Amino acid sequence: MRGGNHMDKQLPELKVNMLGRFSITYGDQPITFKRNSATKAVKLLQILLHSSLTENQGNGGISRAQLLDDLFGREELANVGNNLRVTVFRLRKMLIEAGLPEYDYIVKEKGVFYWRSPMKTDLDVVRFVELIREGEQAEEKAKKMELWEQACRLYKGELLPMQSGEDWVIMNSVHYKEKYSKALRSLCEYKKEQQEYDTILELTDTAMEIYPFDEWQSVKIDALMGMNRYKEAYQLYDATSRMFFEELGITPSERMMNQFQEMSERMGRTYHAAGEIKEDLKETGV
């Protein structure tokens, strides 16, 4: 991060979360902004933190043109430059009123804006990306999976869900989701080989909550079948197929259909037609 040489080692760490929610903690103290504080100032803070800490080993920044675009986008404003100055001023004031030490925080050099702080700033996105990268570089499979498990547990949801309509958030969100999904698939395959089914259940529960239509249910069904918990696997299949039909008007994928076939056979029941399935569900009250 820029200004690293001027950091005060005595100050508590500033912890920032952007995955699944936005929160800031300074030491043990949660940082909250007054209700009337302009959302523009909070958006500016999010943009500065993300661009400064995720790029160039924490020495990133954002050009004035890009910042104006990300912050004001398609808004028709007579004087965006003035609006930006006002927002920067407001943000500095808000940070100090919220309990952070007196400092500049927002620095502009050669047309580039940076986040600078007297304390170390820890951003969950940075840790997530680092763990994924370290996992990719690890030669030993067990080490790779250990790092990816840490990354997946850190991923509490999409980037800044409250700002999910912002272009810069959408772009980065897609990128992080890709990393998460890829790591989690490999991790679940590995845990299946190790027969660590409980871990798969735990990890897929989170994934299903974040991405209900990405068929993580199928990975969970696999784990439940591996544990001989066929009834639960069957109930999850049924709930998932109903949800897919009600929400999207589609049937489950071929993979899930095959799982259903396997479950049916193992439970001593084989269904040949959708009508029979429905009849049976009515009878069993599932």
TrEMBL record:
Domain of life assignment: Bacteria
Domain named Bacterial transcriptional activator: residues: 123-264
Pfam families (UniProt xref): BTAD
Protein name: Bacterial transcriptional activator domain-containing protein
